[in-house]
Amino acid sequence: MKYYLVAGEASGDLHGANLMKALKEEDTEPVFRYFGGDKMQAEGGELVKHYADMAFMGFTEVLLNLRTIFKNLKACKADILAWKPDVLILIDFPGFNLKIAEFAKANGIKVCYYISPKVWAWNQKRVLKIKKNIDHMFCILPFEVDFYKEWGMKVDYVGNPLLDEIAQFEPEQAFRLKNKLSEKKIIALLPGSRKQEIERLLPVMLSITENYPDYEFAIAAAPTFNETYYHQFTGSKNVKLLFNNTYNLLHNAHAAIVASGTATLETALFKVPQVVVYKGGTISIAIARMLVKIKFISLVNLIVNKKIVTELIQEDCNSVKVNEELKIILEGEGRKKMLLNYDGLLALMGMPGASAKTAKLILSYIKA
What we know:
Layout: E1 2-7, H1 10-26, E2 31-36, H2 38-42, E3 46-50, H3 59-64, H4 66-83, E4 87-91, H5 94-106, E5 111-114, H6 126-133, E6 136-139, H7 143-150, E7 156-157, H8 161-168, H9 175-178, E8 185-190, H10 195-206, E9 215-221, H11 227-234, E10 239-243, H12 246-252, E11 253-259, H13 262-269, E12 274-278, H14 282-291, H15 299-304, E13 310-313, H16 319-330, H17 332-349, H18 354-367
Parallel strand pairs: 1-2, 1-4, 2-3, 4-5, 5-6, 6-7, 8-9, 8-11, 9-10, 11-12, 12-13
Helix pairs in contact: 1-18, 4-5, 5-6
């Protein structure tokens, strides 16, 4: 079978790679072509466009990069049409992928969507477009099934692929030694993988490091940037920079400060107490506040539908508040309470197997 996948950011690349691996277990002669990243490329097939050239965060950033986005859309549509896949698999990245879905459906190509767009968060009427243009939706969050049911749409709940990735993870025994980390307790800094979020969040994260001389700080660096890029923020601060090592970092971390996104859930699954931070452009956040219909921004809080982790958003994302909230989770009752709440989250998440389940379903739907 010929599979065309479209992933537009680091998390999509990770889940796309695991899905490709699972498809190879189910299909004796799979052929892959995709918009994605290094992890997907490692699974074989043909990388058409790297996600590093596609990911723009926030309303303002999207507007400023419209020419590039339209160019990427045009290139993707033309490539799909020329290649004629048996199925198109879209992975999250809704602003781009919902347009690709509409095009593919109009051209008679079967469309599967892996990892539902967060239509439950804002502009819920997009579900109508999803019903029209997507043949099969695979959801990874338990509450999404009921949400789609309210709109008269049947979806497949496959569990969360992060559980697959963490189940496969094998801790590096010499992690501290290899990365020249001391025996101090580690505070992990996860500022995201996109340029805009790194530049807004990392300075705030780094501003409190000198308040904790008894801890070691380490940044989970995005592979799409180099050391020189990060050094403009770290300067002379004694902060370690770790590339392609996020899970080993979380495995060894005592606490973390994390950019809102997939990383908040990963941090919770490793049972690392965290402070969640988010800061968007002024116009972007103003628009978001008018449109967003959810109580929380972190996946951790959304899944359990209550506050487990503190979310410091926009003006609250500052040195004073980050420092205050970090102190609460380093020791004592605040730390114990968060770890106890993580147990409830883990119970809701279920067991690994999302990638394999999705691969089986996709193949069955193609053959139907």
